[in-house]
Amino acid sequence: MLEINNLRASIQEESILKGLDLSIPAGEVHAIMGPNGAGKSTLGHVLAGREGYEASEGSITLDGRDLSAMDTAERAAAGLFLGFQYPVEIPGVSNIQFLRAAYNAQRKARGEDELDAMAFLKHVRQFLDTVGMGKDMLHRGLNEGFSGGEKKRNEILQMLVLQPRMIVLDETDSGLDIDALKTVAGGINAMRSPERAILLITHYQRLLDYVKPDRVHVLAQGRIVRSGGPELAQELEAKGYAGIENAA
Amino acid sequence: MSLTERLQPLFDHLPENQRAARAAFWQRLRDEGFPSKKHERWRFTDLPGALPDALHPAEPAQLTLPDVEGCRRIAFINGAAEGVDANELRTEPAASVHDASDLVNAALASTGLHWVPSTASTPLHLCTRTTTGSVHLRHRIEVPPQVQAQLYWDDVVEGDADFVTQSLEITLAEGASLVLARKHANTARGPALLRTDARLARDAQLQLTGFDAGSALSRHDLHVRLDAGGAQAQVHGVFAPWAQGHIDTFATVEHAAADTGSRLQFRGLGMDKGVGVLTGRVHVHRDAQRIDSNQQLGSLLLSPRAQINAKPELEIYADDVQCAHGNAIGQIDQDALYYLQTRGVPYAEARALLIGAYAAETLHIPAMPAVEKALMAGLDRALAHADWSLT
C-alpha cells in the first residue's frame, strides 16, 4: 500500500533522511523506532507534504499513486492520515466544525456527497465511547485547553471519523498515562483492517504491548538500519539503540 | 479644486429652506476646511485626496434588499427613504457638530432616520444603499429609560457613488440598552465617511459590533461617552480592506463619570494592498474614579503588501482606575494551517476557517444570531474578493 524508495530529504539544508526504503502492505501494522534525531518525525511530515519538508530524491506512493505530486490536503483525501505528536490548538474553530470541514472536504475531493450537520453528528457520536470522550468536547475549541491525553484521544477520534487508508501516528503514545494509552491503543486496534495499513512512530515499546505490530523497523541516521518481527521491539527495549546505531 | 469648491454643487442642490438652516455649518466648513494629513487624527488618511473632482447629487434607484429574520426593514436608497414612517424621518439639521470632519455631514445632510424605540419595538434593520452620486444622511436614535432596543445597520456603498457621509447620534437614557450591529462595505469609486456618537446615562448599556470591508476608502469616527455611573459600553469591530481598500477607524470611549466600564475589541485583516488604520482611545476624566476599561487590538497581515497601523491611546486624569490595553499584529499561524490541511481541508478553505475563527469572537452577537450570521457572511465575501496570488 505505502511504498517508499530511496527517500532523501533535507530540512534547512541539513540532510535528515538519507535513502530510506519502506514497504507497508495493506492489512499490516508496522512500527518505526529509533533514537532522538533519527528522522522519525521528519518522515511523518515528508509523507504529509509539509512545506519545507520536500523530498529531494526517491519516491513515495500510496496505492500506486505518487504522493509527492499532491499537496497536503490532496494526500489526506487520497487516504493518508498523520497523527501529530503535538496536536495544534485552534481557538475559535470548534472540534465538530473542524471534523465536519475535514470529513466533507475529503468526500468532496473524492466526488462524494457532503453530509449535512445532523447526519455528520450521528456519524461522529458512534466513535465517542471508543476514545472515552464526552459530547461536550465536540463543541469546545479544537484542542483548546485539552490535556495532553485529551489531545491524543482527539487525534484518534479524527482518525476514526475520517477512516483513512494509511495511518501514520507520530509518537501518539508520548505523554499518556496507562489508562489513556489503553484507550488510544483500543482506537488504533479498532482501525485494523485488511484494507488499511498503520505505521506507528514511537520511541518506546509500551504502545506495542497493546497494538501488536507485524513488523518493526529501526530508523537511525536517516535510514532503516534493521527490520524484524515484534521481538525486535523487545530487544531494543532491553539493549537500547546504541549497538544498532554503531552498526549503521 | 478645494474640497468646498467640489462640495458646492451638492450644497446648492439642497432646497432653499434647508440651505438656510445649514448655512452656518457650510460657512464654518468653508472657513475651517477639512482636516488634512497634517492633523494627528488624520495622518494616515487623505479624504480630500480620495474625492473625485466632480461630485453629483444621487439619482433614484430600484434595488433588491435583503431581509433579516425577526427585524423590521427600512431603507434609504441613494438617500431616498423607503418604508420609513413619517414620524421616523428626520428633517431638522444637526444641533451641533462634534469636530471639523462632522461639518461636511452637518452642512449637506437633509434627512435620515429618527428612531425612538419603545418596549414593544421590533428590532430594526436599517438598510442604506448608495449606488450613484453623493449621499449625506444624519440618523438619530433615542432609547428611552429602561427600554431595550436592537438595531442592525446594513450599509453598502458601491458603483458610481462618489461621496457618502452618514452620522448616527445615539442617546441612551437611564437604564436603557441598545444592541447595535453594523455592516459597512464600500467598493465605490468615492470615499465614505461614517460617524457614530453615543451618550450613555446612568446604568445604560451599549453593545456595538461593527464589520467594515471594501476596496475603497472608508473612515469611521466612533465616539462613546459614559456620562453617569453604571454605564457600560462594549465596542467590537472587525475591518477587512482588500484590493486598494483603506479603512480607518478612530474609536474613542470617554469615561466622564465614576463607576463606568468599557470593553474595546478590534480585529484587523489586511488583504492584498489594503490599508487598515485603527486608533483606540480611552479618555478618563478627572473625577471618573473606579472605572474599568479594557482595550484589545489585534490584526493579521494576510498579504506582504497589506498595511495595518494600529494604536491604543490612553488619557487618564483619575488615579483609581483599571485601564488594560493590548495591541498585536501578526500573521496567520502556519502550524494551524498545516494541521487543517493534513485532515484534508484545502489550503484556501483552511485559511478562511482560521481567519473566520480569529474574527468570530469579536463579531459574536448573542442577542442577534441572524445578524451575526450576516456579518460573518460579509467576512466570507471579503475573503472571496481578495486576490490571494500576492501571498
Number of strands of chain B: 17
Structural class of the secondary structure composition of chain B? alpha/beta
- Judging from the principal axes of the Cα atoms, what is the shape of chain A? globular
Which regions of chain A are unreliable across 5 or more consecutive residues at pLDDT < 50? none
Gap from first CA to last CA of chain A: 27 Å
Instruction: List unreliable stretches of 5+ residues of chain B.
Output: none
Q: Strand order of the main beta sheet of chain A, please? A: 6-9-10-3-11-12
The number of helices of chain A is 8
Top keywords for this entry?
heterodimer, A: 248 residues, alpha/beta, Rossmann fold, six-stranded mixed beta sheet, four-stranded antiparallel beta sheet, 8 helices, globular, B: 391 residues, 7 helices
What would you say this structure looks like, in words?
The complex is a heterodimer of chains A (248) and B (391). With 248 residues, chain A is an alpha/beta fold. Chain A has a single domain (2-247), classed as P-loop containing nucleotide triphosphate hydrolases (Rossmann fold). In chain A, 35% of the residues lie in helices and 28% in strands. Chain A has eight helices and twelve strands. Chain A has helices at residues 40-48, 72-77, 95-109, 117-131, 148-162, 178-190, 231-239, 242-247, and strands at residues 2-11, 14-24, 29-33, 55-62, 65-66, 80-83, 90-94, 141-142, 166-170, 197-202, 215-220, 223-228. In chain A, strand 1 and strand 2 (14-24) form a beta hairpin. The longest helix of chain A has 15 residues, at 95-109. Chain A is globular and about 55 Å long. With 391 residues, chain B is α/β, with parallel strands linked by helices. Chain B has one domain (3-390). Chain B has a 17-stranded mixed sheet that branches. Chain B is globular and about 65 Å long. The A-B interface holds A 48, 50-51, 71-73, 75-77, 81-82, 84, 87-88, 90-93, 97-98, 101-103, 105-106, 109, 158, 162 and B 333-336, 338-347, 349-350, 353-354, 356-358, 360-361.
